[in-house]
Specification:
There is one protein chain. This protein has about 200 residues and is α+β, with helices and mostly antiparallel strands. It has a single domain, classed as Cyclic phosphodiesterase (Cyclic Phosphodiesterase, Chain: A), CATH 3.90.1140.10. Helices cover about 25% and strands about 40% of the residues. It contains 4 helices and 9 strands. The chain has helices spanning about 15-20, 70-85, 115-130, 155-165, and strands at about 1-10, 30, 40-45, 90-100, 105-115, 145-150, 170-175, 180-185, 190-200. Strands 2-6-5-4-7 form a 5-stranded antiparallel beta sheet, with helices on both faces. A 4-stranded antiparallel beta sheet has the order 3-1-8-9. Its EC number is 3.1.4.58. Keywords: Hydrolase, Ligase. This is RNA 2',3'-cyclic phosphodiesterase. It holds the Pfam family 2_5_RNA_ligase2.
Length: about 200
């Protein structure tokens, strides 16, 4: 299964995520994500062997070819939470950002104005513990964010640039008191996320 560690956003912020997506939906070539699945990815793992992988690898992933076991990942998650030593903390989600740049936009995200230090500590601990069991290391710097839309092409780039420059949506605050290991199943309607394990802070 494809899997990753994340902090889920609460249902109380679903409407605010949808409102932040609103101005972006006028852009051609943009695909808003499902607001109900909004989350902060801490560490993408790629394929994890959960003992239920019967068919051949389809090649549609960025991580190892399921040579990391679920048991190893769960143990790494427990060690990472202990290693980070982060207590429950407040997160504030506010404003827009893009990856990789305003000139070439592939992802539009909501930023983290409060809680970024704790999220980074959790990411670094997860990075250390998961790479130790064979998960690929990250190739870019960690930027805490909530993905809210993806762009298929550049037709709507100028519109998205204007929205990002002119608006700064206040999405809201919440307390992060756990991280989750989530599975991701790719479907024609977008990825479907399911919780696998919860790690309390």
């Amino acid at each position: 299964m494809r899997a990753f560690f994340a902090v889920d956003l609460p249902e109380s912020l679903t409407d605010a995520i949808a409102a932040a997506q609103g101005p972006l939906t006028e852009a051609a070539g943009i695909d808003p994500v499902d607001p109900e699945g909004a989350h902060l990815t801490l560490k993408f793992l790629g394929e994890v062997d959960d003992g239920d992988h019967d068919g051949p690898d389809d090649g549609d992933h960025d991580g190892p070819d399921a040579d990391v076991s679920l048991d190893d990942v769960l143990a790494a998650g427990e060690r990472a939470v202990e290693r980070a030593g982060v207590d429950p903390f407040a997160c504030r989600v506010r404003g827009y950002g893009v990856f990789p740049s305003l000139e070439y936009i592939s992802v539009v995200w909501a930023g983290i104005e409060e809680g970024g230090e704790e999220l980074t500590e959790l990411h670094e601990a997860l990075e250390a513990e998961t790479t130790a069991i064979g998960v690929d290391a990250e190739t870019h710097a960690f930027t805490p964010h909530v993905t809210i839309a993806r762009m298929r092409d550049g037709r709507g780039k100028e519109h998205v640039q204007r929205v990002v420059h002119e608006r700064e949506p206040e999405i809201g605050r919440f307390e992060a008191n756990e991280i989750r290991l989530l599975s991701s199943t790719l479907t024609p309607d977008g990825p479907l996320y399911e919780p696998v394990e919860v790690f309390d802070l």
